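Late entry, evening session. Most of the bench is empty. Finally got around to the prediction I had been postponing all week. Sequence below, unchanged from the version circulated by S.P.
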Amino acid sequence: MMYSSLKDFLKQGKPLLAKGPVALVFIEDETETATTLRHHLQCGFKAVAALMPDAFDLPPDVRAMVHRVPFDCGSEGAVTGAVNAVIAAAEPGCWLYYCYNAEYLFYPFCESRGIGEMLAFHTEERRDAMLTYVIDLYAGDLNACPSAVSLEEAYLDKSGYYAQSRQDPETGHPRERQLDFFGGVRWRFEEHIPAASRKIDRISLFRAKPGLQLQLDHTFNDQEYNTYACPWHHNLTAAICSFRTAKALKRNPGSTFDIETFRWHNSAPFEWHSRQLLDLGLMEPGQWF
C-alpha cells in the first residue's frame, strides 16, 4: 500500500500500530533495498513500512507486500523524528522496530521462530525493549565490490568487541545495567568515524508508550529501555547485521582511498545464520530455548 506522506501513514495505518510488531525500514539509497525488505517480511513482522524517496524503485513483489511511505532520510534528525512520530501515533504496548536499508535483523533461532514468538516471550519477562548490536558486514574483495556490499561474499569481525560503562551525566556514576558497546569496522577505522557514531548498540525493538522519545544516540528518554537485561537474569538480545558503515566509508572521499580492504586476521565469512552470531557471543538467548 502507498501513502502520500508520513502523516497520511500515521492516520490511515492506525490499525497497523495497535499491537505490532511493525518494522520501519528507512531507505537512504538504493543499495539492497529489496533484500532488506524481503528479509524483514520473512521475519514475520505484521507490517513492514518502507520510508523512502519517491524516486526509488521497488520490485512488484515487494511493492505489493510493504507499506510505502514517502520520506527523505537525509536531514539530521529526520529518522529520529519519524520514529518518535510513529511512537506517538501507536497504541501503548505496540512493538516497533527500526533499521536502514542493507541492514538485516537476526535474533536467536530466527530460522525457525517468528519475531512475534520472540517478542511474546520477551513481554512475559516484563521487558519493554531489546538491545540489538549493529554488527558490521563488508565485502571480502573491494576490487570486485567497490561499494563494500556483497551478500554472497560478506564478512564480519569475529572478535574485537568490547564494552565500557555508561556514565550518568548528572551524577557521574555508571548507569545500572547500561553499557556502551564498540567493535567492528567502526572500531578499526575509528579515525574516519565521528565519536558520536562509534557505538554499535541500538535499542531497535521496543514498545510504544506515552511520552517515550528516541534520542539522536539511539537511546531512549526512559532509562529502563536502555538496559541490556533486567535485574534478576540475562535477557534476549538480537543483532542487526549491517553493511551501512562499510558502505559509507567507501563512499566518503575522505576515507575511501585509505581503505584497500576491510578484511584482517579476525575476519570470518558471514554465514547468514543465527547460530554463528550466538557462537560468537554477538547476541544472547537469555532464558529462551
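Two things to note before I forget:
The radius of gyration is 18 Å.
The chain has nine helices and twelve strands.
Will write this up properly tomorrow.
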